[in-house]
Batch of 2 targets.
Target 1
Amino acid sequence: MTDSTAVSEGTEAGAPRPPLKVVRVSVPERSVRHDLRAVKIVLHRELIRFWRDKLRMVSGLIQPVLWLLVMGTGLSNLMTSGGGSGPGGEVDLKTFIFPGVCAMSVMFTAMFSAGSIVWDREFGFLREMLVAPVSRSAIVVGKCFGGALVATLQGAVIVLLAGLAGVPYDPVLLLELLGLMFVGAFALTGFGVMMAARIKSMQSFFGLMQMAMMPMMFLSGALYPLNGLPTWLTVLTRFNPLTYAVDPLRQAVFSHLDVSPALERTFNPGVSWGDWIVPVWLEVVIVFAMGVGLMGVAILEFRRAD
Amino acid sequence: MPDGGPAVEVDGLVKRFGDVEAVRGIEFSVAAGEIFGFLGPNGAGKSTTINMLCTLLRPTSGRARVAGHDVVSERDDVRRRIGLVFQDPTLDGYLSGEQNLRFHAELYGVPRSVTADRIAQVLEMVGLWDRRRDRVQTYSGGMKRRLEIARGLLHSPRVLFLDEPTVGLDPQTRASIWDYIRQLKEAEEITIFMTTHYMDEAEYCDRIAIMDSGGIVALDTPEALKAGVGKDRVQIRTADDEAAIVALKDGFGLEATVAEGAVTFSVASGEAFVPRLFAELGVPIVSVSVSRPSLDDVFMSFTGSTIRDAEASASDWMRMAMRGRGGR
């Protein structure tokens, strides 16, 4: 027989029935290798399900496209008519919004992936995972990375729309964007999985997520630049984790554009703590560390749920 | 591999949920290779017991060893050696049957070199080989249950736990599931531990334990249990049940109850008793039926009600509470 490793893999159609013989299996002691296999298969399942659910992929596109084309176009119209040769002059608002839209779409997909734990619980599949002789961490880690990967794939579809927003198709830029999206998605999936460990119904999970995501999105700089805001709003945005996921994306996009320093200051001011501009690497570290931390909490919660 | 000891050994097992004592210090052991059944109405504590044996619930006190390992201190050792088929489905409907099994194989660390063969074998055993690439969503209830049984067997467990394996299935499908279970026992040298509240299914077991409100009230082979009753069951429908019950007690010294809408009592050699009954009861009788002892009677003689009546009165909230806990 074949030694196939992939879940989705099948043999050729109409394969002959195998002879019925008793194959005895012995399950090995728990080991790191075994846990890694578990991580891999949990992750693999996320991918299969994402791939099979084409509708989800398409519906995940609608919201970003609306933001980009409808809101982006509408608002840039407002800016040109109101400000004449104002700051909107050279940079299309769509271009400004693009990194924010990427972040948003990744965020929603990541949350959905995390929500699948609640779904699994409702449909019983979580039980199949929790009674297996593997560590809970393997399952949580698999879910987090699987969710992040799925969200990044969805993000890749958005990235392909870059041209519509006047963002150049530079392979380096695209890779940068994907990498940054993965880190952000990882943190958000961690957050979602942590919540899903406690929440028992789909309705309350999505209700709660909606409640958490809207303010996070509005306070993240996805839709407007974060400079010159009133103090209270400035403080709130600096405490919002999503801020540090959106800014690196925008920095990446602007570094591949040719814009005047004045425009750059208006549209891409970076994130500052007081007078200090937070460097991109630190932002990425913050987001990643948060992801690891949230995943850690999720693991503890699933361990305790025994 | 098998070390000759009992497959399941339980000693003074107790589970308390708050003030409710769901399992009250039960004790039994199951020999390797047996089909052992837990019979009782919903809420009797069957699922709670099985969940403790499967390491899903921590006992409040007492000890249990499954496949030679303690369910609390050697949890993973137990988990590697048992297969589980739950009362509620635990399949991923978006994956194909084969993918569900593949997922299980990876999660249980089944060696890659034998995975494909083993999957083919269990699929063949439950007659799902031809449907292996279809999404589980498209399977019927019976097929899903068969797939779950196949999955429970995939890692060659020593003990297979089946919690109400046929609940909610039509009689034909139930019969076919039982065919598979019996074939399986022969092919796999496995111990099967199951719960059921269908009397006719309990007949298939080598031994059964009757459970009622958290305790084991009887434990033996089905034949021995039935022989132990020694009486036939008589059910009569009368114009006035109350009067009939009083008349039976006063005139014949028989304890009768109303079960399934008929006055029911047990008496030695029932057929010979019926003519006397008509002559001496004094309450008009509409119909009468006499039956040889069945497991129903066994159940009734130990618990004082038929399983269906016990079912109806079993507190539903208790079941819900347990499901809620089991779902974690």
Target 2
Amino acid sequence: MGKNRTPYLLLLPGFGFLFTFFILPIINLAQTSTQTRVSGGDTGQYEQTLRFANYVDAFVDNKEQFGRSFLYAIIATVLALAIAYPLAYAIAFKSGKYKNLLLVLVVAPFFTSFLLRTIAWKQILGEEGFLVPTLRSLGIISQSTTLTSTSFAVVMGMTYNFLPFMTLPLYASIDRIDPRTLEASGDLYANGLTTFRRVTLPLSMPGVVAGTLLTFIPAAGDYVNAAILGNPNTKMLGNVIESRYFKIVDYPTAAALSFTLMAAILILVTLYIRKAGTEELV
Amino acid sequence: MTTQNSHDEIQSGLKDLISAKVSRRGVFAGIGGLSAAAFLASCGSGGGSGSGGEALRWGNWPLYLDFDEKTKKYPTLEAFIKKSGIETKYFEDYNDNDEFFGKVQAQLKLKKDIGYDIVTPTDWMAARWIRLGYTQKFDGANIPNASNVLDTLASPSYDPSREQTLPWQGIMSGFGWNTAKNPKGIRTLDDLFAPQNKGKIVVLTELRDTIGVILLAQGVDVTKVTENQYMNAVDFMAKKISDGWIRGVKGNEYAEDLTSGDATAVIGWSGDMFILASENEGKFDFAIPESGGTISGDNFVIPYTATANAKKNAEAMINYYYEPAVAAEVAAYVNYVCPVKGAQAEMEKIDPELAKSEYIFPTEKTMANLHVFRALTTEEETSWTEAFQKAAGN
């Protein structure tokens, strides 16, 4: 009897943690999302009226930022995949004795704060940085084109910030591929491209799926990049939630938006995993 | 050593102070746009630890009191402690009006000690505290120096006879610009929205300042502005954003954008522009618009949770900071508008150059052109902020 109880006792701290820091806040958020202003009440005073129309209002009011959040997140994820795949492939197969060093380099940016790294990009892309004058004198961008405070800067910042989350799972999955399967493919007269398409890529799919999820989910909810590198026309949903919560002190709308974002991400991710069909992950 | 040399030495000492301030402020500025992050950070530090053991606990904005880098002490505050024997704890953790309010609101509601006996919210936030009944009226007998308050700041609509607030520092808003890009300077909205500044204009997140300056340019009296007039001005800003004139709506970070060349003209604050102008000889300038600028203040407020004894101590401290000589010493460090009459004469003794500074001691002519945005009702505060935030893309 005592033996059977041990595993459950060991699970208790985990459940306790999840309950306190996940379940309770979610319940609280759900309660807040259907509240309305107390009539004649002061700033920040709301009462429960079960007004589910809050969700409709919140969505209709901010559909632009909704669309933008997903668009930017998808572009950043695709770009990160395009950059990280060759990188992970090279580290796994071609780096030899430098493998560990390269892996450390991939993780190294994490030693500096996320905020500072994003602010650094503002300087790199700035008017008096190195990049803009160079591109201008080479005629690649026009004299009036700026790089900061643009959607380009926001997407670029997101791609950069989430790149390690894409690279590491890809590396883990590519590194596991047995090189002999690639040799076998060659023996069967497949050229390089076919080998990649029929052997390497399918075998690395768990890494692709994990990497895209780890990039897409935080990217869709991100607001730091849009706040620092964007302009008023590139704001994402995270910025709206922040402003609703802190500036306008409109907790119900902020809560409704958070829930809608969560639901939208969950649906998209479920569809994606179904389509990608990697049972290994779910 | 000649007098000129020693004067230069003072000047360079001041410069050091200023640059130390900028670098510290730079860090805050970068994070300033992210109040959530700041909020999380401040949760950890929590002011006052609720012990209530000190005789006086003051929560103020960072870099807002004279500070000696060498001794790591606040000279004027040290002098006060010595003189009065009141053990005073100073906390630099008032980073953002909204964030601080969020932090202490729950305790205030329950009338529980918030860990501070005196705080310095900005006008509109002070107005909210008064409206909610979270403040205490001063005992006038304890603050005879209150009569030294500048006339322009003496009767704001939220506290017409200054019974429960007194300004700590005043903040002017107006136009700041890069002199190379705007050689003729900026005095009107048309100057601001001139072709050379297209896409390189930054305005303040503080709606009373940004919209205030626009309203004044449209000929509206900001002390009596109506909802229609306000919304018109917000629409004007929204149009300038969607047409690509305004690149950002920001807090102190606009200073970084000016130095990096990403912004060439701004609606900004006097204190920041003073530092930019003095650090980059002649590269930046600041002026109050011809049609008028706004002036606001951060104010001493005693929360209703402070004990009678703490309140008395707080009043003694306010009285102390309203002595012209003390106010001048503070102003020499913080560079915002000094709200105390007679401080300019005292400044003559410390630094005659600074005594002439329009940033710290605006002339009467400038003062007459500065206006205080009227207090908003609760409903207005919500719907006006919402309209402004929406125009800013949020």
